[in-house]
Amino acid sequence: MSYSHNTMGSGSRTARRTFEFGRTHVVRPKGKHQATIVWLHGLGDNGSTWSQLLESLPLPNIKWICPTAPTRPVALLGGFPYTAWFDVGELSADGPDDWEGLDASAAHIANLLSTEPSDVKVGIGGFSMGAAMALYSATAFSLGRYGNGNPYSTNLRAIVGLSGWLPGSRCLRNKIEVSHEAARRAASLPVMIGHGTCDDVVPYKYGEISAHSLSVAGFRNLTFKNYEGIGHYTTPKEMNEVCNWLTARLGLEGSRYSPNGKQLACCTLDGQTHFWDPINGFLMCTIEGHQVIAGGSLTTDRSPIDVQAVASSVSGSGSFPLFCQELCKVHVNSDSAKFQKSSTCFKFFTTGNRPNPS
Length: 358
What we know:
The chain is built from eight helices and 16 strands. The protein is an alpha/beta fold. The chain folds into two domains: about 1-250, Rossmann fold (3-Layer(aba) Sandwich), CATH 3.40.50.1820; about 265-350, no CATH class. α3 crosses α5 (about 180-190).
């Protein structure tokens, strides 16, 4: 499949670049189809390599789509042709970004997801340059548009970036802060970033910079994992954590989250249950109201008023008493790990012992 983009040349002439994408490999779900993830390879690789690994993962409800990037000259490699999602000259927050290439690849990825059933959750993941592409797609989703201004309409539900970086990180915060809707979308999108501390291809600092840039721009549902002593490759431990994270964030069947009595949980008005780590301020798990929590029963009543019905379906260490019965909303400030109130109506409860009334 090819994509054409216009770029301004000298004077008033317009130059057209056409991107020819390679073969797309698809791994069909072995169980009920609940989610589709487009997974993107790194520089010089192809979709076949990753499709073989992804097929072996214990995620039977996910369909994997593994496209192959166009072959193009890459400045970082002396202008020689490689499969690449976009051109890159250097890894630098101040370096130029190939917006045309980024937009063409992001549009190709969105097109691959456009035909998925409406009840199937969709997401994007990738390794190295593929991770950069996934994170760029996350910013396009939050802003509601590509870098060229065209609308971005894919409703992403999860982003995974391993050993990569965030293109355009230097100006992301300013773009999101001026739009309430962009801030809302950014806060709602779960993002996982993983990076090895000994990566000598995409240095670890770029993983940290990417996570920080997304966090300060308003991506509140962000998980950053560092892997001590690991270079520019994935490990079974990292892929296992990716599996667990996707299972929890996408609410896949087989996800059985067991609270241990140390989480703060909130029941939202649309029937979801969010489990927060009150010490570190991390969102640990999101469970749809109708799904099974380990040791509990089905919660079919999605009413926002019947918090006790949700509470009674969750088992952890001891009971699941009501923590707070008044209507309020709590959000986590990840910098200070403090819970603060605002005006929107939520109800909250905890898996720990019921506090004494003050």
